[in-house]
Amino acid sequence: MNNYFSMGGYAAFVWPAYALSALVMIGLAVTAWWNLRVRERDLAKLRDQLP
Predict the structure, then answer these.
(1) Domain extent at residue 41
(2) Is residue 36 part of a domain?
(3) pTM for the predicted model, two decimal places
(4) What is the pLDDT of residues 14-45, one digit of tens each?
(5) How many domains does the chain have?
(6) How confident is the model at residue 4 (pLDDT cuts 50, 70, 90)?
(7) What DSSP string runs through the chain?
(8) Integer angstrom CA distances of residue 1 from 5, 6, 8, 42
(9) Is 22 inside a domain boundary?
(10) Terminus-to-terminus CA distance in the chain, angstroms?
């Protein structure tokens, strides 16, 4: 198991790359979710204005 986590001596490069990728993907998911909420709120306002 220790050999796996050391990544053949490249762990100092591999694990930060994994962490950065995970942070970017989480950020994209949060941004998409946030934009969805904003657009749904805007749509609800427009629907309320219809006769």
Answers:
(1) 12-49
(2) yes
(3) 0.76
(4) 999 999 999 999 999 999 999 999 999 999 99
(5) 1
(6) confident
(7) -HHHHHGGGTHHHHHHHHHHHHHHHHHHHHHHHHHHHHHHHHHHHHHHH--
(8) 7, 9, 12, 51
(9) yes
(10) 66
